[in-house]
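TODO from last week: model Cellulase family glycosylhydrolase.
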Amino acid sequence: MRARNALGRITLTTVLASALAAGAATALPARPAHAAPEPLRTIVDDRGRTLILHGLNTASSAKGPSGLPWIQREDVVREARELGTNSVRYLIQWKNIEPEPGRYDDAYLDDVAERVAWYREQGMHVILDMHQDIYGPAACEGSGNGAPAWATHTDGLPCTPQTPWVLTYVQPAVIRAYDHFWNNTGKHPELVQRFTAMWRHVAERFADDPAVLGYDLYNEPFGGTRQFGFFEGPVLTPFYQGIVNAVREVDRDNWIFVEPQALGPNEGAETSLGTIRDPRPGAPRLVFAPHFYPGGVDIGGSYDGFTELLVKAQFLLWKRNMPAAARRLGMPMWLGEVGGMPASAPGADRFTEEWLRMADELGIGWAYWSNDPGGGGVIDGDGKPTPFARLLARPYPRAVAGTPTEISYDGTSLTVGWRARSGTSGPTEIWFPADSPVVTSTDPRGTWKYRWDAERNVLSVWADPNSPTHTVTVKP
């Protein structure tokens, strides 16, 4: 069972369903033709190339007592070869890192490092995600993950796990645990201080690991009794700033990923997250990392009938509001979680195709939820690929030697366009699952070249150095 914060998906859907279904065109007036938005900033590698991150979340099993996922080395190899993933959102937990105040379990971090090495062997980028749902297991017996018991203060209030599980978020003990963590009560400022120090310890441990691209600071923030503008601006923004400052004391280079609150933005509502400053020398390396879980398709829902109409409206909201927030914050954007449907659900394939197309149109990467065996993952209980695996094994540019201007896949051929950018070296790399693909380019004949790696299904393209723009098309 996935344990994520879906409260916003349910609540916001209930409030907005009628208005959204009545007509997205009314709620979302068309932009003037002359008001084309500025391109999003991009995540870049050590050669200055734009990284398009395709990967999975690893994994629900990492939410258990051990804090470790079910995977073995061969699972990572299979993922890289069969799905072409170049990244992973790897779940870790505060309770496993700091089982007692100020005492860090470095043996646990060694176990994490061992698994990170498996991804490094496949040339994959790792984003370490500090995961939590329903605050932590001590907030409500029988549910939750994340915070250690010593950091959980419920004041003796009751909690009964609910069905669906996301309703457990509004149990009195859970609300109080969040309020104490965020210091809404004014009684426990030490909790955020300890959480910040814990992140500094993790960053110091992984700062020099070449596989670690960065850190996702807090999974799906939930503000307790404070929500929206009362939470994201005055509470969540300075919380992130404090952790960014602490991480930069020990790691100047890795990327830091920040999420808006889950309630609302997961379905496309605007976020009021404020500006965060990166104290590192040079360009900032902060990433805006929202999730996409439209109400109606999550928790075993479907994508047909009225639900499809509702979800299409949320697609439009998310596609407008999340990039707008990334531009306002001056950050690249990455879709940190998306998925949420069993393969057997009506419309599951169409929903998956549509969010994949949306990500391509925005030029952003994603991390699918999740790699767990089962109907919503990429392998079934017998280890065989699910329909989702076939959809996610989608040709894409892994690294682009410039600023992407087009990523489009029609089910057969992939077209990648980009503008040259100073300070970039190395080829554009494209994952394309086919034998000896046919490659064409808009660059003049004789000015560009390519190399095909049949073992990894990776095409490397060196473009004409004298051309400002390039478009490459790859076909089977």
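Done. Residues 7-25+53-394 form a domain with the TIM Barrel fold (CATH 3.20.20.80).
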